[in-house]
Protein backbone atom coordinates (compact mmCIF):
# COMPACT_ATOMS: atom_id res chain seq x y z
CA UNK A 1 0.00 0.00 0.00
CA UNK A 2 1.57 3.23 -1.15
CA UNK A 3 2.16 5.64 1.74
CA UNK A 4 0.81 9.19 1.57
CA UNK A 5 3.39 11.00 3.60
CA UNK A 6 3.46 14.32 5.44
CA UNK A 7 7.01 15.36 6.29
CA UNK A 8 7.45 17.69 9.26
CA UNK A 9 10.84 19.39 9.32
CA UNK A 10 12.46 22.51 10.72
CA UNK A 11 15.79 22.70 8.96
CA UNK A 12 17.84 21.71 5.98
CA UNK A 13 15.65 18.79 4.97
CA UNK A 14 18.35 16.45 3.73
CA UNK A 15 16.30 13.50 5.03
CA UNK A 16 13.21 14.83 3.28
CA UNK A 17 15.32 15.04 0.12
CA UNK A 18 16.54 11.45 0.53
CA UNK A 19 12.93 10.30 0.85
CA UNK A 20 11.86 12.27 -2.23
CA UNK A 21 14.82 10.88 -4.18
CA UNK A 22 14.02 7.28 -3.25
CA UNK A 23 10.41 7.81 -4.33
CA UNK A 24 11.59 9.27 -7.63
CA UNK A 25 14.01 6.42 -8.25
CA UNK A 26 11.20 3.90 -7.68
CA UNK A 27 12.62 2.25 -4.54
CA UNK A 28 10.10 3.78 -2.14
CA UNK A 29 6.42 3.25 -2.79
CA UNK A 30 5.05 6.53 -1.45
CA UNK A 31 4.08 10.07 -2.30
CA UNK A 32 4.98 13.10 -0.24
CA UNK A 33 1.68 14.95 -0.13
CA UNK A 34 2.85 17.68 2.23
CA UNK A 35 6.02 19.20 3.61
CA UNK A 36 5.33 21.23 6.73
CA UNK A 37 7.72 23.47 8.60
CA UNK A 38 7.41 25.62 11.70
CA UNK A 39 10.25 27.81 10.41
CA UNK A 40 9.57 30.11 7.46
CA UNK A 41 13.28 30.15 6.54
CA UNK A 42 13.76 26.35 6.60
CA UNK A 43 15.57 25.04 3.53
CA UNK A 44 13.27 22.03 3.44
CA UNK A 45 10.55 24.33 2.04
CA UNK A 46 12.72 25.21 -0.96
CA UNK A 47 13.37 21.53 -1.55
CA UNK A 48 9.61 20.85 -1.55
CA UNK A 49 9.00 23.71 -3.94
CA UNK A 50 11.68 22.42 -6.29
CA UNK A 51 10.13 18.94 -6.19
CA UNK A 52 6.64 20.35 -6.82
CA UNK A 53 5.39 19.14 -3.47
CA UNK A 54 2.72 21.00 -1.52
CA UNK A 55 4.32 22.81 1.39
CA UNK A 56 3.09 24.86 4.28
CA UNK A 57 4.59 26.84 7.09
CA UNK A 58 3.16 27.96 10.39
CA UNK A 59 5.53 29.85 12.62
CA UNK A 60 5.17 28.33 16.08
CA UNK A 61 5.93 31.74 17.62
CA UNK A 62 2.50 32.84 16.51
CA UNK A 63 0.87 30.02 18.47
CA UNK A 64 1.84 30.11 22.14
CA UNK A 65 -0.87 27.51 22.77
CA UNK A 66 0.71 24.22 21.75
CA UNK A 67 -2.60 22.41 21.32
CA UNK A 68 -3.86 25.00 18.84
CA UNK A 69 -0.59 24.74 16.90
CA UNK A 70 -0.80 20.92 16.83
CA UNK A 71 -4.41 21.06 15.63
CA UNK A 72 -3.42 23.36 12.77
CA UNK A 73 -0.79 20.86 11.66
CA UNK A 74 -3.22 17.94 11.98
CA UNK A 75 -5.73 19.78 9.80
CA UNK A 76 -3.11 20.42 7.13
CA UNK A 77 -2.15 16.75 7.21
CA UNK A 78 -5.79 15.71 6.71
CA UNK A 79 -6.43 18.36 4.08
CA UNK A 80 -3.56 16.90 2.05
CA UNK A 81 -4.90 13.37 2.44
CA UNK A 82 -1.80 12.06 4.22
CA UNK A 83 -1.90 8.76 6.10
CA UNK A 84 1.63 8.74 7.51
CA UNK A 85 3.67 11.35 9.38
CA UNK A 86 7.46 11.51 9.06
CA UNK A 87 9.39 13.74 11.44
CA UNK A 88 12.70 14.73 9.88
CA UNK A 89 14.47 17.24 12.05
CA UNK A 90 11.21 18.70 13.37
CA UNK A 91 12.24 20.77 16.38
CA UNK A 92 8.87 21.04 18.13
CA UNK A 93 7.37 18.67 20.66
CA UNK A 94 4.02 17.32 19.54
CA UNK A 95 1.33 16.93 22.18
CA UNK A 96 -0.66 13.91 23.35
CA UNK A 97 -3.75 14.67 21.27
CA UNK A 98 -1.75 14.89 18.04
CA UNK A 99 0.23 11.75 18.80
CA UNK A 100 -2.90 9.78 19.66
CA UNK A 101 -4.46 10.79 16.38
CA UNK A 102 -1.52 9.45 14.40
CA UNK A 103 -0.61 6.57 16.68
CA UNK A 104 1.34 3.86 14.84
CA UNK A 105 1.62 6.17 11.84
CA UNK A 106 4.24 8.63 13.05
CA UNK A 107 7.97 8.04 13.04
CA UNK A 108 11.15 9.99 13.76
CA UNK A 109 14.85 9.72 13.04
CA UNK A 110 17.44 10.43 15.70
CA UNK A 111 21.20 10.80 15.11
CA UNK A 112 22.39 8.51 17.91
CA UNK A 113 21.87 4.96 19.08
CA UNK A 114 18.83 5.35 21.33
CA UNK A 115 18.33 5.15 24.23
CA UNK A 116 21.78 6.78 24.37
CA UNK A 117 22.02 10.48 23.72
CA UNK A 118 18.42 11.58 23.21
CA UNK A 119 17.73 15.29 22.70
CA UNK A 120 18.79 17.85 20.19
CA UNK A 121 22.56 17.27 20.13
CA UNK A 122 22.84 13.52 19.73
CA UNK A 123 25.91 13.56 17.49
CA UNK A 124 27.86 16.01 19.60
CA UNK A 125 26.84 14.35 22.86
CA UNK A 126 28.13 10.95 21.71
CA UNK A 127 31.38 12.54 20.52
CA UNK A 128 31.92 14.51 23.74
CA UNK A 129 31.11 11.50 25.86
CA UNK A 130 33.92 9.61 24.19
CA UNK A 131 31.66 6.92 22.75
CA UNK A 132 33.43 4.51 20.44
CA UNK A 133 30.29 3.59 18.57
CA UNK A 134 27.34 5.80 17.74
CA UNK A 135 24.70 5.75 15.04
CA UNK A 136 21.20 6.47 13.91
CA UNK A 137 17.79 5.28 15.13
CA UNK A 138 14.41 5.32 13.41
CA UNK A 139 11.57 4.90 15.88
CA UNK A 140 7.86 5.30 16.48
CA UNK A 141 7.02 8.60 18.14
CA UNK A 142 5.64 8.62 21.65
CA UNK A 143 4.98 11.44 24.08
CA UNK A 144 8.33 11.09 25.78
CA UNK A 145 10.94 12.48 23.41
CA UNK A 146 13.15 10.01 21.47
CA UNK A 147 11.70 7.03 23.29
CA UNK A 148 9.30 5.10 21.04
CA UNK A 149 9.88 1.52 19.83
CA UNK A 150 12.86 1.15 17.50
CA UNK A 151 12.36 0.21 13.86
CA UNK A 152 15.89 0.25 12.44
CA UNK A 153 19.29 1.33 13.73
CA UNK A 154 22.61 1.90 12.02
CA UNK A 155 25.81 1.87 14.06
CA UNK A 156 29.05 3.63 13.19
CA UNK A 157 32.44 3.58 14.89
CA UNK A 158 33.66 7.02 15.89
CA UNK A 159 37.07 7.32 14.25
CA UNK A 160 40.10 8.46 16.27
CA UNK A 161 40.19 12.26 16.45
CA UNK A 162 37.10 12.57 14.28
CA UNK A 163 35.61 16.07 14.06
CA UNK A 164 31.93 16.82 14.65
CA UNK A 165 31.65 17.82 11.02
CA UNK A 166 33.14 14.59 9.68
CA UNK A 167 31.06 12.40 12.00
CA UNK A 168 27.88 14.33 11.17
CA UNK A 169 28.49 13.72 7.50
CA UNK A 170 28.78 9.97 8.04
CA UNK A 171 25.73 9.94 10.32
CA UNK A 172 23.64 11.76 7.71
CA UNK A 173 24.76 9.33 5.01
CA UNK A 174 23.36 6.47 7.11
CA UNK A 175 20.17 8.43 7.84
CA UNK A 176 19.54 8.93 4.16
CA UNK A 177 19.55 5.20 3.61
CA UNK A 178 17.77 3.82 6.63
CA UNK A 179 14.89 6.30 6.79
CA UNK A 180 13.58 5.60 3.27
CA UNK A 181 14.12 1.87 3.91
CA UNK A 182 12.01 1.99 7.08
CA UNK A 183 9.25 3.81 5.21
CA UNK A 184 9.31 1.23 2.44
CA UNK A 185 8.77 -1.49 5.06
CA UNK A 186 5.67 0.40 6.21
CA UNK A 187 4.51 0.68 2.61
CA UNK A 188 4.91 -3.10 2.29
CA UNK A 189 2.94 -3.62 5.51
CA UNK A 190 5.89 -5.44 7.09
CA UNK A 191 6.30 -3.49 10.32
CA UNK A 192 4.52 -5.08 13.24
CA UNK A 193 4.49 -3.58 16.71
CA UNK A 194 3.98 -6.72 18.76
CA UNK A 195 3.92 -5.09 22.20
CA UNK A 196 4.73 -1.74 23.74
CA UNK A 197 8.45 -1.97 22.87
CA UNK A 198 9.08 -4.54 20.18
CA UNK A 199 8.88 -4.14 16.44
CA UNK A 200 9.06 -7.20 14.24
CA UNK A 201 9.88 -6.90 10.56
CA UNK A 202 8.00 -9.46 8.50
CA UNK A 203 10.23 -11.23 5.97
CA UNK A 204 10.24 -9.83 2.45
CA UNK A 205 11.45 -11.14 -0.88
CA UNK A 206 14.15 -8.60 -1.71
CA UNK A 207 17.83 -9.37 -1.65
CA UNK A 208 19.48 -8.44 1.67
CA UNK A 209 22.57 -6.31 1.22
CA UNK A 210 25.80 -7.52 2.83
CA UNK A 211 26.95 -5.75 6.00
CA UNK A 212 29.24 -2.84 5.40
CA UNK A 213 32.61 -2.63 7.11
CA UNK A 214 32.18 0.84 8.64
CA UNK A 215 28.52 0.53 9.43
CA UNK A 216 26.23 -2.07 10.98
CA UNK A 217 22.56 -1.77 10.15
CA UNK A 218 19.86 -3.90 11.73
CA UNK A 219 17.53 -5.11 10.29
CA UNK A 220 19.79 -5.18 7.22
CA UNK A 221 19.03 -3.04 4.20
CA UNK A 222 17.45 -4.61 1.16
CA UNK A 223 18.15 -4.02 -2.51
CA UNK A 224 17.31 -0.43 -3.53
CA UNK A 225 18.53 1.26 -0.33
C1 LIG B 1 18.93 14.69 11.39
O1 LIG B 1 20.22 14.50 11.87
C2 LIG B 1 17.94 13.90 12.19
O2 LIG B 1 18.47 12.74 12.70
C3 LIG B 1 17.60 14.85 13.31
O3 LIG B 1 17.58 16.11 12.71
C4 LIG B 1 18.46 16.13 11.60
C5 LIG B 1 17.69 16.65 10.41
O4 LIG B 1 18.53 16.86 9.32
N1 LIG B 1 16.35 14.48 13.93
P1 LIG B 1 17.91 17.25 7.92
O5 LIG B 1 17.09 18.53 8.12
O6 LIG B 1 17.06 16.13 7.43
O7 LIG B 1 19.08 17.52 7.03
Shape: globular
Order of helices and strands: EHEHEHEHEHEEHEEE
- Name the hetero compounds present: 5-O-phosphono-beta-D-ribofuranosylamine
What is the makeup of the main sheet? 8 strands, mixed
- Tell me the strand order in the biggest sheet: 3-2-1-4-5-6-7-10
Mean pLDDT: 96
Cα-to-Cα separation, first versus last residue: 19 Å
Structural class: alpha/beta
Radius of gyration, in angstroms, nearest whole number = 17 Å
Helix tally equals 6
Total strand segments: 10
- What is the helix content? 25-40%
The share of residues in extended strands comes to: 15-25%
Low-confidence stretches: none
What does this structure look like?
The chain is α/β, with parallel strands linked by helices and 225 residues long. It contains 6 helices and 10 strands; from the N terminus they run βαβαβαβαβαββαβββ. An 8-stranded mixed sheet has the order 3-2-1-4-5-6-7-10, with helices on both faces. Helix 1 packs across helix 6 (164-187). The longest helix is centred in the last third of the chain and has 24 residues, at 164-187. The protein is globular. The relative contact order is 0.15. Residues 9, 11-15, 88-89, 109-111, 175 line the site of 5-O-phosphono-beta-D-ribofuranosylamine.
How do the helices and strands line up, and which of them pair or pack?
Elements: E1 3-8, H1 14-24, E2 30-37, H2 43-50, E3 55-57, H3 66-79, E4 84-87, H4 96-101, E5 106-110, H5 122-129, E6 133-140, E7 150-157, H6 164-187, E8 191-193, E9 199-201, E10 216-218
Helix pairs in contact: 1-6
Bound molecules: 5-O-phosphono-beta-D-ribofuranosylamine.
